[in-house]
Design a protein that fits this description.
- The protein is an alpha+beta fold.
- Among the domains are: about 80-225, Alpha-Beta Complex (Dipeptide-binding Protein, domain 1), CATH 3.90.76.10; about 315-580, Dipeptide-binding Protein, Domain 3 (Dipeptide-binding Protein, domain 3, Roll), CATH 3.10.105.
- The protein is about 20% helix and about 20% strand.
- The strands form 8 sheets. Strands 1, 15, 16, 17, 20, 21, 24, 25 and 26 form a 9-stranded mixed beta sheet that branches. It has a 5-stranded mixed beta sheet with strand order 2-3-14-13-12, covered by helices on one side. A 4-stranded antiparallel beta sheet has the order 6-7-11-10, with helices on one face.
- Helix 9 (about 335-345) packs antiparallel against helix 11 and helix 14 (about 540-550) runs antiparallel to helix 15 (about 555-570).
- About 55% of the residues are buried.
- Belongs to the bacterial solute-binding protein 5 family.
- It holds the Pfam family SBP_bac_5.
- This is Peptide ABC transporter substrate-binding protein.
- It comes from Haloarcula japonica (strain ATCC 49778 / DSM 6131 / JCM 7785 / NBRC 101032 / NCIMB 13157 / TR-1).
């Protein structure tokens, strides 16, 4: 759900956590010179188990306890040792991993588990009982006692979604309304599970701290044969090491085809944490790592390197200027005209063409242009940051509207606060990405020039920003009427982060191009990813809900058009760019492709020596 700028380049992570690394140029041409996974599948006999796959990350993960993470780096680590319910392939078809969904009416979904799934730690076979116990007692636990990050996914209109066991390997999810795209949503796509034997130690007493600190969970001792790799060690801020799982369940599934017979095809999979961007690129250039992300300014140089295959792919994360609307942020960010003013102050076209060298498009709302749900006509009135809606005049006009009735005022070109002092705001960028830092600097310069507001740039590792700035909770001893987990601990006037902040470009937000309604979590006051404290002034959540349950695609498109129009108007965060992912891989690696879904089948990547 949250992508960390410059944090990770891990092929094969599921789209829910956004860990994919390679992503397509906008005209769809493939000029990378790389080998497509489909071509490789035609010659399965060339697949042999050999070598070590090494990826590189600019920032370490936060935790291996997936109940409490929602970021790309942590998800990528965990996903190496645990598959998930199912994947989604390049053609948007469900690819069963642990389970397969089926439905007759689009409302009741039957989930059938494979019969060869085994937990580690002596917990036996994975069964439907494990899933139902976990969903009903943890995901849907009273007042989210466990603090599960994505608890909101398992409720509709404030009520828990009914879940019931059918038999040993089957359970049903009974949605309150028809949802034709349910299998493509992260509620089950990419969903992980824990054995009942672990959870029942904490459920009766609602021992959230015990669950958070459980050693078996935090060292992945329960993963058994459920993922392609097995956890070996994690040296914090240095490396994360997994080794090939000799008991991996997918090798026993005959109908998958010959290319899956001996997956995975690497002896080990290691993530090296290298904070400095130049060092990561040198490691790729020198053959010290298998794969790494490439900044736009370095893309051409690597494309000319015969030893490196470069993949350019569309990706789902929107780069935006996030505003802290909680009590420890700037109070004026709660005003729509103020947020619109910031969007007008920034020249998105220049950012896309110069800083990103054409590997990005201006963004205006919560959907990329390559999505079939993109609603260009609906947002024409709100294309802030381009054309007539960019520059000092449109920005200052909206800021004047925003400060009307307050004690803020302009003294010439400078905005003064109620004490008569110039307004100064903080802006955080990722220390792992030079591009992200330059983006912050350019944004800051344009805001200062067009709005008369001084901007102080701070750089910070992505995991530190999540822990100290995005995560929030009420003061100790103070109760709140609701909590949606780590990233939204309650009402914005009460639940605040450990450290104050005003703006950030550290994290990207997943737009969910296949199932846009999944992004509602950013726009509900109680959304589990709403760490900024945004409270919608229009009916955005209701429109999302209506679109989600609408079967007719034309009607659904119209509803999403209304959603994206309201989001473009309200600017819950300042939409900046939709970047393409640029990834370099050593030439012998076979598997990645220039497609949005590249990585869904990373288990069958291999080295062609």
């Amino acid at each position: 759900m949250l992508g960390v700028g410059g944090a990770t380049a891990l092929a094969g992570c599921d789209g829910f956590l956004g860990g994919g690394t390679e992503q397509t140029d906008r005209d769809g041409d493939d000029d990378s010179g790389g080998t497509d996974a489909a071509d490789a599948a035609e010659n399965p006999s060339s697949r042999t188990v050999s070598g070590s796959y090494t990826s590189v990350a600019g920032s370490d993960a936060n935790s291996l306890n997936w109940l409490y993470v929602n970021d790309t780096a942590s998800g990528a680590y965990i996903d190496l040792t645990l598959d998930s319910a199912w994947a989604v392939d390049n053609d948007q078809n469900v690819f069963p991993l642990w389970a397969e969904p089926s439905t007759e009416d689009g409302q009741t979904y039957r989930i059938t588990l494979r019969d060869n799934l085994q937990w580690g730690g002596g917990y036996g076979q994975m069964t439907a009982e494990d899933w139902v116990y976990m969903i009903t007692n943890v995901f849907q636990g009273e007042d989210n006692w466990a603090g599960y990050t994505n608890a909101g996914d398992w409720f509709r209109q404030g009520e828990p979604i009914p879940v019931a066991q059918v038999d040993t390997l089957t359970f049903e999810i009974r949605l309150p309304e028809v949802d034709p795209t349910f299998p493509l949503k992260p509620i089950m796509w990419g969903q992980l599970c824990l054995p009942k034997g672990i959870l029942e130690k904490y459920v009766p007493d609602k021992d959230a701290e015990g669950l958070r600190q459980d050693e078996e969970i935090n060292t992945l001792q329960y993963t058994g044969n459920l993922g392609p790799y097995t956890y070996e060690e994690w040296e914090r801020e240095s490396q994360y090491v997994t080794v090939r799982n000799d008991d991996y369940y997918l090798r026993d599934v005959d109908e998958l085809g010959e290319q899956w017979d001996n997956v995975p095809y690497f002896e080990s999979y290691t993530v090296q944490v290298i904070p400095e961007e130049s060092s990561r690129l040198n490691a790729l250039r020198n053959g010290e790592v298998t794969i790494a992300g490439i900044p736009p300014r370095n893309a051409q140089g690597f494309q000319e390197n015969e030893d490196i295959d470069v993949y350019v792919q569309p990706q789902p994360f929107v780069q935006a200027l996030k505003y802290n609307m909680r009590a420890n942020g700037w109070e004026l960010f709660r005003e729509i005209p103020v947020r619109q003013a910031f969007a007008c102050a920034i020249d998105k076209t220049t950012l896309a063409e110069n800083l990103y060298r054409g590997f990005a498009d201006p963004a205006y709302t919560m959907q990329p242009r390559f999505s079939k749900w993109y609603a260009e006509e609906e947002i024409q009135e709100y294309t802030f940051g381009t054309g007539d809606l960019q520059g000092s005049e449109p920005a200052r006009t909206r800021m004047e509207q925003g400060i009307e009735g307050t004690e803020y005022e302009y003294d010439g070109e400078t905005l003064l606060n109620p004490d008569g002092d110039p307004v100064t705001l903080s802006l955080y960028a990722s220390s792992a990405s030079n591009t992200n830092q330059t983006l912050a600097e350019l944004v800051g310069q344009q805001v200062e020039s067009n709005l008369g507001i001084s901007i102080g740039i701070e750089t910070i590792p992505g995991n530190t920003f999540q822990q100290q700035y995005a995560s929030n909770s009420p003061p100790e001893g103070e109760n709140v009427s609701w909590s949606s987990g780590t990233f939204n601990g309650g009402p914005r006037d009460v639940s605040v982060s450990q450290e104050p902040w005003d703006m950030s470009v550290v994290l990207g937000f997943n737009t969910y191009p296949r199932t846009p309604s999944s992004s509602v979590t950013f726009f509900r006051e109680r959304g589990n990813a709403n760490y900024t404290g945004y409270v919608p002034e229009s009916n955005i959540p209701e429109l999302y809900a209506e679109a989600s349950r609408t079967v007719d695609e034309t009607e659904r498109r119209e509803l999403f058009g209304q959603v994206f129009r309201q989001i473009a108007r309200e600017q819950p965060f300042g939409f900046l760019l939709m970047e393409s992912d640029i990834t370099g891989a050593q030439d012998p690696l076979v598997g990645p492709s220039d497609t949005f879904a590249s990585g869904w089948d990373y288990q069958r990547y291999y080295f062609d020596r």
